TrEMBL record:
Keywords: 4Fe-4S, Carbohydrate metabolism, Gluconate utilization, Iron, Iron-sulfur, Lyase, Metal-binding
Lineage top rank: taxon: Bacteria
GO cellular component, one term: cytosol
PROSITE patterns noted in UniProt: ILVD_EDD_1, ILVD_EDD_2
Name of the protein in question: Phosphogluconate dehydratase
Positions bound to [4Fe-4S] cluster: C156, C223
Organism placement in taxonomy: Bacteria, Pseudomonadati, Pseudomonadota, Alphaproteobacteria, Hyphomicrobiales
Function according to Swiss-Prot or TrEMBL: Catalyzes the dehydration of 6-phospho-D-gluconate to 2-dehydro-3-deoxy-6-phospho-D-gluconate.
GO molecular function, one term: 4 iron, 4 sulfur cluster binding
InterPro entries per record: 6-phosphgluc_deHydtase, Dihydro-acid_dehy_C, DiOHA_6PGluconate_deHydtase_CS, ILV_EDD_C, ILV_EDD_N, IlvD/EDD_N
Length: 606
């Protein structure tokens, strides 16, 4: 099957735009590779420090410099449910490496915050910046240059993008990402959302809300809705950085452990000392980035990746834009319905055929680049499989099922849920924004209503509780961008706006903040750029202005005379309260340096 025309055209223009920066990047990593394993050039004092705490066998192996050494970058902590299973991984990896005649060492740990814990709290203002901290922390771990390859233990929202950025900085090293999998299914997402809405209306108390939440988030593993964490896992597989079929196997199972051991063996097999050298900087090329974007659209994935994929591509010398993402969305069909875009969770998606089915269907109609490099040593067609365990504990790969196990969750490409991915770039006199409408009813894809302006989500909450929001409204929540306060997610708004919509009102959100992978049934123009704190026109909007959000044509307009609108002064906000407490004072430099949302909102230049 030849590549889809739109997918091919977007890939070619990304390659043209990136020619110089990508060439410089490849030259840099190939120069690093040509120098060979650096450990051999460390001084005796350097090397003695590097293996001082190793056992006798590992120390002898490293001293002889004849076996590969695998660096482990871990984002383990036992407060974050998705990362708690990683506690036992280092020893599992070390033993698998010894069994393969090699050595493995933990090169470093990186922070891993849970956005679920910090939602609506001051700590959420560190969330986006944590991605860049993670990238830098992982780079520090690898800077000892003791390693021939690396494995990365990370799953959740900012962690995987940060780890990918670090891996690409060390692009000459072979790299495999090792997941830990989703928690088992708890109460239904519909039931959880219903209790949240009842709580927002004051019809149930905190006790009932906590009981509901605890039945949803109930054990080790990722949260089971299709937010950024599970979008990350989809991306790592469809971009060729996971072993095939590894993404959505539950934690603490024999199959999960077998996949981890296999990943270790494979990472050791693709070092420069063997015959299958596979540097990560060559795995992630323009085609792999496009495959990631296609996967995001086909599954209705997280809007956070309109920033993360741009930043990840940048780290590989590739210049991805929002227009590329939007144009691909117009061409790629939606094949998955996972909450919030449906009733199912990721366990249902996996059981229905999962990644193997999805990749095969997209390949069959030319939506994915097949002939890419992957850590598995195959093209992407090697990922059209399911991982299974034999009776003796060994792994096997079976072909993905010919038919979806549940056509309400996972559709074939011949009968998609909708013809496009439902993610659109909006443009107009307010600026540029993104909107995800795969969970929004078609009759709400165009909203025109008066603005009500807020400078925080707490202000909107207060207005809702006071009964002030009784008519059609476009809630404008500004001074929430990266320069203002780190661009927090604004999920505290979801129940209130959902209630207003359920009352029959026309409701929408316009914000320079984020709503992330849980963006749901209320149309939301998010990531508005330029942000209010950076001279953006969102700071000129006044209460009562008529705003039009059109996800069909891609318009984001305030319907005010242009001369009048442009003559208005920019509103301001005292942001001093956002600059201290829970470590925010330490991130002043990040707020000053961060780039705009459409360039990845990172601090690493442009």
């Amino acid at each position: 099957m030849t590549i889809n025309a739109r997918v091919g055209e977007v890939t070619e223009r990304i390659a043209r735009r990136s020619r110089d920066s990508r060439s410089r990047y490849l030259e840099r990593i190939r120069l690093a590779a040509d120098k060979g394993p650096v450990r051999s050039r460390l001084s005796c004092g350097n090397l003695a420090h590097g293996f001082a705490a190793c056992g006798a066998g590992d120390k002898a192996a490293l001293a002889g410099d004849v076996v590969p050494n695998l660096g482990i970058i871990t984002a383990y902590n036992d407060m974050l449910s998705a990362h708690q299973p990683y506690e036992t991984y280092p020893e599992l990896i070390r033993q698998a490496a010894r069994d393969a005649g090699a050595v493995a060492q933990v090169a470093g740990g990186v922070p891993a915050m849970c956005d679920g814990v910090t939602q609506g709290q001051d700590g959420m203002e560190l969330s986006l910046f944590s991605r860049d901290v993670i990238a830098m922390g992982a780079a520090v771990g690898l800077s000892h240059q003791m390693f021939d390859a690396a494995v990365y233990l990370g799953i959740c929202d900012k962690i995987v993008p940060g780890l990918v950025m670090a891996a690409l900085s060390f692009g000459h090293l072979p790299t495999i990402f090792i997941p830990a999998g989703p928690m088992t299914t708890g109460i239904s997402n519909d039931e959880k959302a219903k209790v949240r809405q009842l709580y927002a209306e004051g019809k149930v108390g905190r006790k009932e809300l906590l009981e509901s939440e605890s039945k949803s988030y109930h054990g080790p593993g990722t949260c089971t809705f299709y937010g950024t964490a599970n979008s990350n896992q989809m991306l790592m597989e469809i971009m060729g950085l996971h072993m095939p079929g590894a993404s959505f196997v539950n934690p603490n199972t024999p199959l999960r452990d077998a996949l981890t051991r296999e990943a270790v063996r494979r990472a050791l097999a693709i070092t420069a000392s063997g015959n299958e050298y596979t540097p990560v900087g060559e795995v992630i090329d323009e085609r792999a980035i496009v495959n990631g974007v296609v996967g995001l659209h086909a599954t209705g994935g997280s809007t956070n990746h309109t920033m993360h994929l741009v930043a990840m591509a940048f780290a590989a010398g590739i210049r991805l834009t929002w227009d590329d993402i939007s144009d691909l969305s117009d061409a790629v069909p939606l094949l998955a319905r996972v909450y919030p875009n449906g009733k199912a969770d990721v366990n249902h998606f996996h059981a229905a055929g999962g990644m193997g089915f999805l990749i095969r269907e997209l390949l069959s109609d030319g939506y994915l680049h097949k002939d890419v490099r992957t850590v598995n040593g195959t093209g992407l067609d090697g990922y059209t499989v399911e991982a299974k365990l034999n009776a003796d504990g060994t792994l096997r790969r079976d072909p993905a099922p010919a038919k979806s196990g549940d056509d309400k969750v996972l559709a074939p490409v011949s009968t998609p849920f909708q013809a496009n991915g439902g993610l659109k770039v909006l443009k107009g006199n307010i600026g540029r924004a993104v909107i995800k409408v795969s969970a929004v009813a078609p009759e709400r894809h165009v909203i025109e209503a008066p603005a009500r302006v807020f400078h925080s989500q707490d202000d909107l909450q207060a207005a809702f509780k006071a009964g002030e929001l009784t008519s059609d409204v476009v809630a404008v929540v500004r001074f929430q961008g990266p320069k203002a306060c780190g661009m927090p997610e604004l999920h505290k708004l979801t129940p209130a706006l959902g209630i207003l919509q359920d009352r029959g009102l026309k409701v929408a959100l316009v914000t320079d903040g984020r709503m992330s992978g849980a963006s749901g049934k209320v149309p939301a123009a998010i990531h508005v750029t330029p942000e209010a704190c950076d001279g953006g026109s969102i700071a000129r909007i006044q209460d009562g202005d008529i705003i039009r959000i059109d996800a069909v044509t891609g318009a984001l307009e305030v319907l005010v005379d242009a001369a009048e609108f442009n003559a208005r002064p920019l509103a301001s906000k005292d942001l001093s309260a956002n600059q201290f407490g829970v470590g925010r004072d330490l991130f002043a430099g990040f707020r000053a340096m961060v780039g705009p949302a459409d360039e990845g909102a990172h601090v690493f230049g442009s």
